[in-house]
Amino acid sequence: MRLTRHPANPILKPNPFNAWEALNVFNPSVIVHNGLFHMHYRAQGVDYVSHIGYAVSRDGVHWNRLQQPVLSPSSDRDARGVEDPRVTELEGRFYMAYTAYGRKGPYPETGTPPTGITPMIAVSDNLLTWETLGPVVENEDNKDHALFPAKVGERYVTFHRRPPSIWLAFSDDLRRWGDHREIIKPRPGLWDGKRVGAGGPPILTEAGWLVLYHGYDERHVYCMGAMLLDLNDPSRVLKRPTEPILVPEETWEIRGDVPNVVFGCANPVIAGEVYLYYGGADRVIGLATAPLAELLTWVLAAG
User: Fold this and answer.
1) Residue 127 near residue 111, CB atoms below 8 Å
2) Residue 53 lies in a domain
3) Is the pTM of this model over 0.85?
4) What count of other Cβ atoms lies within 10 Å of the Cβ of residue 7?
5) What is d(CA 265, CA 218) in angstroms, rounded to the nearest whole number?
6) CB 25 within 8 A of CB 285
7) Looking at the DSSP assignment, which residues form a beta bridge with residue 284?
8) Dihedral angle computed from the Cα positions of residues 189, 190, 194 and 195, in that order, rounded to the nearest 10 degrees
9) SS3 293
10) Confidence class of residue 303 from pLDDT cuts 50, 70 and 90?
């Protein structure tokens, strides 16, 4: 099964009139609240320092954006950027999982993962002003975290990545995290054979937690896939099809700041349709969709 790209793609492009987002806009979070689509997106200017911008939409396709970022570097921990937001609405508040890219370590060589990255969580009541709660883990290079939209067994749950795998962590208060569990590893020879990481917050279904995740292979081609986790024990993987649901095909997914990338950080469900918002080649933002029922049926059958 493959998702269907929206004909208006790419739906958000860099704005050359704002220095902080003049080069790249990518890897967005999108949630729906009070009848509006709210996007938080990673943005870079020519200095390659990442900020997080905000845009709002009535239809999820056409966007009005603020002219200033809502989250920017503020300390040595995130001096090189705040990256890859994933927002979850939970218990009446908004929680942003984002990556802090600090001064520790040299700038990476092409194709080499950066060092000095920390998975952070911030909270907001209005989606515009954010208070940092703290890291999921410290003193290790870790990212790709996304909060579950509901507690599991009276505990908060988040994905995170200890390379090259996807892990879970649990917390009583969203500040101190433990009980870390590895749930999936790369599958050599397949599209996700080199490294895997979470996409957006998981989707709650009767069959389990439906998860859209990214992976790449030895050629460094980023694709999106799907898996299903047990509702009561999300460390149990119930289904994991071998085929991806989205691969780089469009010119703007193949050519950009980082070639051959589709990287999703959001998958809200709107009127029974999954909206996957993703970065294309680390330069622009795209949208691809699928009926939730069809996607779930395929995962159950193919996994």
Assistant:
1) no
2) yes
3) yes
4) 7
5) 22
6) yes
7) 280
8) -160
9) helix
10) confident
Q: Are strands 131-135 and 273-280 parallel, antiparallel or unpaired?
A: unpaired
Rounded to whole angstroms, the Cα distance separating 286 from 288 reads 7
**What six digits make up the tokens of 6?**
């929206």
Instruction: Record the tokens describing residue 119, joined without a space.
Output: 């998975």
Provide φ and ψ at 21, rounded to 5°. Answer: -130, 25
Does 74 reside within a domain?
yes
Name the pairing type of β-strands 93-101 and 117-124: antiparallel
Domain for residue 9, yes or no? no
Do the strands 269-270 and 93-101 form a parallel or antiparallel pair, or are they unpaired? unpaired
The span from the CA of 167 to the CA of 174, in Å, is 16
Q: Average the pLDDT over 254-275 and give the result.
A: 98
Cβ pair 245, 295 in contact under 8 A: yes
Range of the domain at 259: 25-302
Rounded average pLDDT over 192-219: 98
The CATH number for 168's domain is 2.115.10.20
In three-state secondary structure terms, 27 is: strand
